[in-house]
Amino acid sequence: MRSGTVIAVSRDTTHRFSKTNQDSIRLLAGLGVEGDAHLGVTVQHLSRVAQDPTQPNLRQVHLIHAELFDDLRLAGYDIAPGDLGENVTTRGIDLLGLPAGTRLRLGPDAVVEVTGLRNPCLQIDAFRGGLLKQVVGRDEHGAVVRKGGIMGVVLDGGDIRPGDTVDAELPAEPHRPLERV
């Protein structure tokens, strides 16, 4: 599906695994989520800063589909919006099926361009033991499948609230599949 609904928005001023749910968040063009530890033109994820602090921040906004939480609940994990560090939790839109370069309109003003897949790390197992195997697996051909959401950069700023719509505008073909960023 190419449209859905925002069910939660989250941010955190410090580098913690989970983020706190908010009534609204403000996206700032070229920077990310106002008041979030990952706000910036250059990379803010600590492991990536250690590698090269000058690389562009392709992970300004993290989005996860709530359908993942439904699947995780069936596997015995009670995960809520913000728990996995996402800024925007959606329902009804196939985030993982979108091609790179898709533009997501969130609410009336904000636009985020999808840059790639989140690459969950071992911190997820510190949060809940065994969770990494639930969000990273392999398909029938042995290829890695990442289910931990998508990342994007803010093209147009604006406020986002639970209940806002999410609409996807696909880029021109040929479409590029999402890769980890």
TrEMBL record:
InterPro entries: MoCF_Sase_C (IPR005302), MOSC_domain (IPR052716), Pyrv_Knase-like_insert_dom_sf (IPR011037)
Transmembrane segments: none
Residue span, MOSC domain: 20-169
MF terms in GO: catalytic activity; molybdenum ion binding; pyridoxal phosphate binding
PANTHER family noted in UniProt: METAL-SULFUR CLUSTER BIOSYNTHESIS PROTEINS YUAD-RELATED (PTHR36930), MOSC DOMAIN-CONTAINING PROTEIN (PTHR36930:SF1)
Record's protein name: MOSC domain-containing protein
